[in-house]
Amino acid sequence: MSKFYGNNYDITDIMERLTPQCSSMLLNCYFRNQRMNCSDIFSVGKTKNGFCCIFNYIAESFGDAPKFFKQEEFKLYYVGDIGIQNGLTVTMDPLLDDYFYTILPTIGWKVMIFDPYDYPDSGSGSVSDILLGPLTEKYVRLKAVGLYSTDNIRPYSMQKRGCIFPDEYVSDHTTYTYNDCIVACKMEHVWNHCKCRVFFYPYHEDFNRTCNMENIHCLLQYYDVAFNIVPYKDNTLSSSLDDQNATMYCKNCYPECDDMRYYVQSTISNIEPGYFDTELFPDMNVTNHSVLHVYFPNSGTEFLKQDVTTRWYEYLGEVGGLYGLYVGISIISFVELIYFIILWLSEAFKSLEVVEEEIPHENAIHPIYWNEFFPHSRAVMNN
């Protein structure tokens, strides 16, 4: 490649040009029961799997927007209600004639479900992957579960509570996410060893050189391996890992105290090939096409609350109640026992400080009566 381009090439631009166009793959798009132009709601963006067609993604954390997103303004699409008709429906063409080398041993699509503010990196734990083959119709049901943390846990350290509030993270970016922190940690790890950034990672001003073909051997050693990720300082977790050379240590990548997670369930059905004139396949000869439905089946969102379960005075009351129930003593008994011990010790120390004074003995002369030397009964007889 260096000979072909004369050592003057950008691997990111090459991979972008080799990526199939979204307008060729995405044939029909429906959102909230309205047909929309797929090019208006989908944009080309970077993911862990390279360049992909992305819906509802705001790439604000690493500043890739000017080059890889054609929209002038980022727009988030919100569902108005539950059900398939209020979700996203896409008819897709796999372009099987364009297949040359696949990452996965299958044909079709790899669909990733992730948060709009997170970079789609499967290794960070915030992405759900779904495989969709040709001539299939898949129904993807989403369930949102939120996490809410009260201010009662703020006085505790991040190590104690195990999470971080957004205003506790100092950065040039407007938001903090655990996902982006892990991605930045991976980028820093590769940069420290190979002095470059893998092309599909977002642009970062601290890692401004893109890896090329000359860095393949270094990437195979320090990137293309299964790493154990330690997101923050944890001596117990670090000591339990056997291979320290295959461990990546990050700097304070704590989960968010306020977060939203999306869980996925899916069902699939087959599509018979042939000519169709329906809403999803208007005047089309279906050969290898597939349909994807993404929607919320139920209304409402579950929220988990993170709070201080037991305060010190509550814990003291529980201990006192247990002792009173099983032993027959109370906290007051312990207080009285301590009081009497302190009182006894204070009296003992005072007695040591007192010096006994020697009392003088005086010789006293008293008259002696003979009757005192005889028993009382004899004295009576003489009388």
TrEMBL record:
Superkingdom as given in the UniProt entry: Eukaryota
Compartments in which it is found: Membrane
Main location: membrane
InterPro entries referenced in this protein's UniProt entry, alphabetically: ENaC
One Pfam family hit: ASC
Annotated transmembrane regions: 323-345
GO cellular component annotations of the record: plasma membrane
Keyword S-adenosyl-L-methionine appears in the UniProt entry: no
Membrane protein topology class: Multi-pass membrane protein
One GO MF term attached to the UniProt entry: ligand-gated sodium channel activity
Alphabetically ordered keywords of this record: Ion channel, Ion transport, Membrane, Sodium, Sodium channel, Sodium transport, Transmembrane, Transmembrane helix, Transport
Keyword Metal-binding in record: no
Family of this protein: Belongs to the amiloride-sensitive sodium channel (TC 1.A.6) family.
Protein name per UniProt: Sodium channel protein Nach-like
The organism of origin for this protein: Bombus vosnesenskii
Gene: LOC117237268
